[in-house]
Amino acid sequence: MTTFDERERGFESKFARDEEQAFRALARRNKALALWAGAILGKDGAQLDDYVREIMRADLQEAGDQDVFRKVSADLQGREDPEAVRAKMASLLEEAQEQIAQGS
Question: Could you give the CA distance from residue 81 to residue 83 in angstroms, rounded to a whole number?
Answer without folding.
Answer: 6
